[in-house]
Structure formats: structure tokens, C-alpha cells
């Protein structure tokens, strides 16, 4: 179409031209439905009508493409939300499992017990130590039994974590006793160069509790009587 023909169209149909300009303006800001509503239901079969029809088809396809992108974006957001929720659930379950695998029990007045289950890695050892320290301070406990009956083996690194736990507990005025010690665990602890000389290890939790009660009874007997 020549420039003269275009000028002729603009002169002959100024209202249709302004309507098309409004359509283009609406489409440029994403108002595709409003833009399509401006097209006449009975398009005229002339050159301007061909231009209108071409623009209508273009905006219709542009609207469909925009809606598809919005659906894909919404699906991506939903997928991300689902992943976030699942990760939060996994983290919550992991925390609960760790709590269950290392509960801190009040087995007697002033005596705590930590029955460990599974593998004692570095992160878990730090978590158990921190929880035990807080509980010792809160309850003013004088003894803590760390039971290894359910631990899956004790290597040199795990044994070192245990030693650090014992020392940390001692710093807040509590004595830690290791129970559930197998011959293999005993050898691993003995091989450590920095193993404390006063480290108390006993075969099971019952013996550990008996040891703590006897020690407390002996301490009470040795204490001087209160004078009026």
C-alpha cells in the first residue's frame, strides 16, 4: 500500500483510524481483552478492514501468548511454594528425629540422661552438647548420663566429640558419665591422646544411675552438718 493510499484511508475513515490507535495503545499496556473489544463485529471488506483484521489476529495471538506465559509463571510459583513447603517439612521432621534420637531425660533429682541413637556426627554432637548444657543450667543438675547403647559404632572422631561434650558439661558444674560402653568403644576412648583421666565409663544406664546416686549419697554424708 502506497503512502497516497494510506493518506486516502486516513482521510476517508478517521474514526476507524482513531479506534485502531486506541486498540494499539491498549494492547501496548497488556489490556488485550479491552483492545479486542474495540473491533467492530461486522468488519468491512476494504483495505482498512484488512488492516483491522490483521491487527485483530495479531492481538489475539499476543493475548494467547501472554496468558500462556502467565499460566507458566503461576505454575512455576506454585512449584516453588511446594518445594519450599516440602523442604520446611523435611527440616521439621529432621529436627524432630534428632530430638527423638537424643532426648534429655530427668531420670532422678539432679540427674539427666541422654540416650543417643544412630550416628554421632559433628553437627549432631554440637546440637546435643548445646541442648544438654542449657538443660544442665536450667535444672542445676549435678550429673549427666550419656548413654551409647544405641550408637552405631564409635570411631576416633565420634570419641573426640564425646570428650568435648564431657568437658563442656564439666565447665557448668555437672559431671558427665558415659554409659553403654562396649569393649570396642572402650578401646577407642583409651586410644585418644587427650582423653580425660577422670572420664567415668560404665557398662549400662542402670550402673550409671547407681554410680550417680552413690556419689551423691557419699557427698551428702561427707558434708559438715549445719550449725545453729
UniProtKB/TrEMBL annotation:
Any Pfam family the entry gives: STAS
Domain named STAS: residues: 101-189
InterPro entries per the UniProt record, alphabetical: Bact_StressResp_Reg, STAS_dom, STAS_dom_sf
CDD domains membership: STAS_RsbR_RsbS_like
Protein name: STAS domain-containing protein
Lineage: Bacteria, Pseudomonadati, Myxococcota, Polyangia, Nannocystales
Amino acid at each position: 500500500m502506497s503512502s497516497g493510499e494510506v493518506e486516502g484511508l486516513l482521510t476517508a475513515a478517521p474514526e476507524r483510524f482513531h479506534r485502531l490507535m486506541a486498540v494499539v495503545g491498549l494492547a501496548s499496556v497488556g489490556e488485550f481483552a479491552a483492545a479486542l473489544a474495540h473491533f467492530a463485529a461486522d468488519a468491512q471488506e476494504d483495505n482498512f478492514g484488512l488492516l483491522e483484521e490483521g491487527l485483530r489476529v495479531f492481538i489475539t495471538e499476543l493475548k494467547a501468548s501472554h496468558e500462556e506465559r502467565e499460566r507458566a509463571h503461576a505454575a512455576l510459583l506454585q512449584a516453588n511454594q511446594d518445594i519450599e513447603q516440602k523442604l520446611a517439612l523435611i527440616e521439621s521432621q529432621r529436627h524432630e528425629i534428632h530430638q527423638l534420637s537424643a532426648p534429655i531425660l530427668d531420670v532422678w533429682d539432679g540427674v539427666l540422661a541422654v540416650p543417643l541413637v544412630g550416628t554421632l556426627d559433628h553437627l549432631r554432637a554440637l546440637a546435643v552438647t548445646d541442648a544438654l548444657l542449657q538443660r544442665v543450667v536450667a535444672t542445676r543438675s549435678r550429673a549427666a548420663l550419656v548413654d551409647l547403647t544405641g550408637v552405631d559404632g564409635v570411631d576416633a572422631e565420634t570419641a573426640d566429640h564425646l570428650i568435648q561434650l564431657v568437658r563442656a558439661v564439666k565447665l557448668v558444674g555437672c559431671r558427665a558419665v558415659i554409659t553403654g560402653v562396649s569393649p570396642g568403644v572402650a578401646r577407642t576412648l583409651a586410644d585418644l591422646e587427650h582423653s580425660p583421666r577422670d572420664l567415668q565409663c560404665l557398662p549400662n544406664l542402670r550402673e550409671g544411675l547407681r554410680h550417680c546416686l552413690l556419689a551423691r549419697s557419699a557427698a551428702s554424708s561427707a558434708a559438715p552438718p549445719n550449725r545453729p
